[in-house]
Amino acid sequence: MEPGLYTKGFKRRVNVALGLRSYDIAIGRGLLASFDFGNCSGRTSALCVVTNSTVWPLWQGRLLKGVLSAYTLIDPIVIEDGEHRKLLSTIETVWSHLLAHRADRSTLLIAVGGGVIGDITGFAAACYQRGIDFIQVPTTLLAMVDSSVGGKTGVNHPLGKNMIGSFHQPKAVICDIDTLSTLPPREYASGIAEVIKYGAITDLAFFEYLEQHMEALVARDPEVLIDVIARCCEIKADVVAKDERESGLREILNFGHTFGHAIEAGLGYGEWLHGEAVAAGMVMGAYLSEALGLLPMRDVNRIIELTKRAGLPVRGPSSLAAAEYLDLMRVDKKARNGAIRYIVLDSLGKARTQPADDALALASIERANALAATSS
Ligand code: NAD
Ligand code: GLY
């Protein structure tokens, strides 16, 4: 994408280098109204927004008054809010809407919402007429730093979360941090868990930056937010460029997720937010790294303190016994032949995949569960 395609308000740009499928992530303020969406694809005849019943009433005014108004617009597809709508039947609804409005292969979909909307829109775009272009306009912190980047798209199946999907890269990702002003605090904190993850797995200097700026980040300071989102996107872009299809390196992005998915599945999805489960899962992963003789205890404590300062849980739910995690982790998508693959830290800023004895994993869960919930 040419720099000229960005308009006022654009602050940072991160490129995801994937050859012909490369794209840019724009991060700034006021982008909903000023970004030239239609120009990203190079073959756009009409634009169609896919969004949800919470986000659209809040932000449609900005979008429709802006550059979007210069294009032929198909009626927006407004999906009922919630993870429970991330289903194949919703994808069919999207396709039916597009067919009914005679959308063709040059129609551009614009996903406006959190990770649920991004995953639905990306998958619908991947299959409609064998693949059309789409743009991600993430409106949650989690979606800005994680789900909108990297091309994983899909829906849940009654037998498992994110089990049906495809890789389909967007043409651009537009992070307008103004949209975060309406995001509920719990959802915002959930995104910070993924932010901490990036520092822990790849970048000690970024982890230290977060230690210095956590209160400003929690307060949604715009300058800090833009720097943080840009750094997270750079890290994710770098990992995805090296391992787009998750045959190795990309697995490190799952630090905290193996334990976290057990919490989400064990409680029933939606009880804890994804980032909350990942936060407690990272603490368990840090303890496991220490038990394996890799991570010094002082670094485990740094992860715990930073997580608490973000307002995130550091221990699992009291209703889930440590022994229950192992069964849940064995059926996780990342397990291979029932063997659990843990992401562990060699040091702060350096991660890898490693198997571990059940006894060590159990002890790590129990150590996290014994922690006090708030900062000392
Ligand atoms: P979400 O999409 O459900 O959004 C969370 C809540 O915030 C929803 O109620 C939503 O309506 C609301 N919301 C969104 N933007 C808002 C705004 N600006 N103001 C007010 N409310 C707003 O959840 P999420 O945390 O963004 O994403 C979680 C989803 O992402 C899960 O389905 C997960 O599987 C998926 N995910 C995908 C990837 C990937 O690589 N594709 C990575 C991580 C997570
Ligand atoms: N959220 C992990 C990944 O995109 O690979």
Write structural notes for this entry:
It is a single chain. It contains 13 helices and 11 strands. With 376 residues, the chain is α/β, with parallel strands linked by helices. The protein folds into 2 domains: 12-182, Rossmann fold (3-Layer(aba) Sandwich); 185-369, Dehydroquinate synthase-like, alpha domain. The protein has a 7-stranded mixed beta sheet, with helices on one face. A hairpin with a 6-residue loop joins β1 and β2. α6 runs antiparallel to α7 and α10 packs across α13 (358-369). The chain binds nicotinamide-adenine-dinucleotide and glycine (GLY). Glycine binds next to loops. Nicotinamide-adenine-dinucleotide binds next to α2, α4, α5 and α6.
CATH superfamily of the largest domain, called what? Dehydroquinate synthase-like - alpha domain
- What low-confidence regions span 5 or more consecutive residues with pLDDT below 50? 1-7
CATH architecture identity of the largest domain:
Up-down Bundle
Q: How many structural domains? A: 2
The CATH class of the largest domain is identified as Mainly Alpha
Instruction: Could you tell me the CATH topology label of the largest domain.
Output: Dehydroquinate synthase-like, alpha domain
Our Rg estimate from Cα atoms comes to 20 Å
Classify the oligomer.
Answer: single chain
Q: What is the 3D form? A: globular
Q: Give the overall average pLDDT.
A: 93
User: Order of SSEs, N→C?
Assistant: EEHEHEHEHEHEEEHHHHHHHEEH
Count of separate DSSP helical elements:
13
Give the N-terminus to C-terminus distance in angstroms.
48 Å
Major sheet: order of its strands? 1-2-9-6-5-3-4
Structure class: alpha/beta
Percentage of β-strand residues: 15-25%
**Fraction of residues in helix:** 40-55%
Largest sheet data: 7 strands, mixed
What is the total tally of β strands? 11
